[in-house]
Amino acid sequence: MNLATMLRARAEANDPVRVGLIGAGKFGSMFLAQAHRTPGLAVVAVADLDPARASAALDRVGWPEKRPALLDDAERLIAGDAEVVIDATGAPAAGIRHALLAAEHRKHIVMVNVEADVLAGPLLAQRATEAGVVYSLAYGDQPALIAEMVDWARAAGFEVVCAGKGTKYLPVYHASTPDTVWTHYGFTQEQVEAGDFNARMFNSFLDGTKSAIEMAAVANATGLAPLAEGLRFPPCGVDDLARVLGPREPKGTVEVVSSLERNGQPVARDLRWGVYVVFEAPSEYVRRCFAEYGLVTDPSGRYAAMYKPYHLIGLELGISVASCALRREPTGRPTGFRGDAVATAKRDLAAGETLDGEGGYTVWGRLMPAADSLAIGALPIGLAHGVRLANPVKQGSPIRWSDVEIDESQEAVKVRREMEAMFRPGLARAAE
């Protein structure tokens, strides 16, 4: 409740929180738009593979005359004088490298890169803790906001029944490719040509991959569990959250609700841009309090929901930066390996084909309990880019490590394998 006061104190002491940003894309640009307006924050460096892109981002957001250093070397930024490093690259291998370097250099890291977090976040968070620094999910992105709502409910003494977010979903979207994505979104060619649209990124949100990645991050951060079948994407508006998600079994799960009915019609009062938590009244007295204070519940009155209709992406990211530097608290962090996002064939794939990763033509990411993923040797979506299939895989089937030719010497692969070995014994016991 007092981050602004703590930031102001740093500003008055002429000792602002020094921040280094890696990645000057949309998320990074949105952070920059607010960072120079936040007393007590100082962006000292921005690293991007294309420094001209970073310069253009500063221009676009109205950065004042005195600018941070612009670098093309993220390792140099991490070794510099920033207190907090933000990885906003979206590249899993790069995120793993940056998190390990941040721990080595004793820098707090805010992981916007949820792809890297789901690939190896539980191990990366442990490395940060061992180094005495904070590893944090990114406030403004949905996983951190969901983790905050879960923490609120538990701190108030409620059992969390379900938590998650909303999205636009139909089953046919799992087969979507960059060639079909704009039709599904209803964008015209003129709109696409006039805007700054990334077809693969938009397709990752549409085909279910981003939902799987984000809900795996939530499961790993909160202890909530993925369902055995993954995400069901039930059509559900905010007034029906308690009714649809409260009474179902098992309790303590993650779920994404759809803003579309299965016939394509819009859901009333949808939660497409927001997050939610469903919780249970622990007694008859509390159930009566729900009724007295106007909570929308399921018919039994036992289950209620809180929701946040929007998330502001990078515009809210300063909350994570301030929390790490001033409170030494993450805005969500993985505490175990409970959920995985597994590469799944979009169509029948032949031996010899090369997978093209998140948002592409060949695979989408499906949420799976980590114990089940390890049991079948599933290939995480974060490593399903640029690898050649050794075996054919049927549409809708998970791709396994044994199905691909992969370079085991790559750092991201080695770190993922180390994490799997770290958690395998406990997960095997949990699955029995």
Describe the model:
- With 432 residues, this protein is α/β, with parallel strands linked by helices.
- It has 3 domains: 152 residues, NAD(P)-binding Rossmann-like Domain (Rossmann fold, 3-Layer(aba) Sandwich), CATH 3.40.50.720; 130 residues, no CATH class; 93 residues, Alpha-Beta Complex (Type Iii Antifreeze Protein Isoform Hplc 12).
- It has 16 helices and 15 strands.
- It has a 6-stranded parallel β-sheet with strand order 3-2-1-4-5-6, with helices on both faces.
- Helix 3 links the parallel strand 2 and strand 3.
- The mean pLDDT is 96.
Helix/strand layout:
Blueprint: H1 3-12, E1 17-22, H2 26-35, E2 41-47, H3 51-60, E3 69-71, H4 74-78, E4 84-87, H5 92-104, E5 108-111, H6 114-131, E6 135-137, H7 142-155, E7 159-167, H8 181-185, H9 189-194, H10 199-206, H11 209-222, H12 241-245, E8 253-258, E9 275-280, H13 284-292, E10 303-308, H14 318-327, E11 339-345, E12 354-356, E13 363-369, H15 370-376, E14 385-389, E15 404-405, H16 411-431
Parallel strand pairs: 1-2, 1-4, 2-3, 4-5, 5-6, 7-8
Antiparallel strand pairs: 7-9, 9-10, 11-13, 12-14, 14-15
Helix pairs in contact: 5-6, 6-11, 6-16, 7-11, 15-16
